[in-house]
Amino acid sequence: MRRSKDELNKMRKAGKVVAEMHEATRNAIRPGVTTMKLNEIAAEVIAKRGARSNFLNYHGFPAVICTSPNDMIVHGIPGPYVLREGDIISIDCGAIVEGYHGDAAYTAGVGAISDLAKKLIEVTERSMWAGIEQLKIGNRLHEVGRAVQHVAEDAGFSVVRDYVGHAIGTEMHESPQVPNYWPGTPGPTLKEGMVFAIEPMVNVGGFDTYELDDGWGIMTQDGTLSAHFEHTIAVTDNGPEVFTVL
Ligand code: MG
Ligand code: MG
Questions:
Q1: In what order do the strands lie in the sheet with 88-97?
Q2: Angle, to 10 degrees, between the axis of helix 35-48 and the axis of helix 5-28?
Q3: How far is the CA of 229 from the centre of ligand 2 (A)?
Q4: Of 43, 50, 121, 149, which has the fewest CB atoms closer than 10 Å, so is most exposed?
């Protein structure tokens, strides 16, 4: 779907709130902090900006952010888990402003982390930017996944297949989906005003996943580390415009 200038303005505002949630949670990440505390910090940003949460109560999700440590890929429920030196933690945040959604995620290290964890975080973020660069008028959507996959696999990592990016607007998850790998077809042609959440999930080992008994947390099947980066981006006459930045 193509969004009007007025709609894009509202999405810009939602994106700024999400970026503020990133900044506030990132500043609080250290050994000894619980994932529930990070959720409280993010909720304060939403309240302060007069925004609404798109995560809270989404299919019954009980928090405003997802917190996914180490071999958890996505969708972790914030709770009593205490961050430890050497952990990596993926934080996914979202907000609604004037009916329009923003959605973005990052992975950070807790204190000193291993060289492998550093490489995973660096490669996953770089794969996201390679995907974002493909969001140009006239390009085909699945070039995003091709670019993401190239960066991740070149580094010896794998790209998760079971969870993907998405269009976004008046709903958080709109059609079409955006695979982070080449799915065998080029996909829709990109037009001015389309908005997508590009969100590679990259694993050190294989791409297979399983779901925790809580019905939310998604884990790597082989127990290896996973990282996740995401931004909300519009296709514009001037190239991709990232909304989820300060
Ligand atoms: Mg997200
Ligand atoms: Mg998303």
A1: 65-69, 88-97, 100-109
A2: 140
A3: 10
A4: 50
Token duo for residue 135: 């969001």
Q: What CATH superfamily classification does 5-242 receive?
A: Creatinase/methionine aminopeptidase superfamily (3.90.230.10)
CB 76 within 8 A of CB 86: no
User: What does the pLDDT look like over 194-216, one tens digit per residue?
Assistant: 999 999 999 999 999 999 999 99
Distance, CA of 204 to chain centre: 18
Residue 219 pLDDT = 98
91 CA distance to ligand 1 middle (Å): 8
Give the ligand whose atoms come closest to the C-alpha of residue 177.
2
Domain locations in the chain as residue ranges:
5-242
Q: How is 159-209 classified by DSSP, letter by letter? A: E-SSS-EEE-SSSSSEEEEE-SS--SS--PBP-TT-EEEE--EEESS---E
Distance 157 CA to ligand 1 centre (A): 21
Instruction: Give me ligand 1 centre to Cα 112, in Å.
Output: 26
- Taking Cα atoms as reference points, which of 4, 2, 43, 36 lies closest to residue 20? 43
Nearest CA to 221 out of 231, 208, 239 is that of: 208
pTM assigned to the model: 0.98
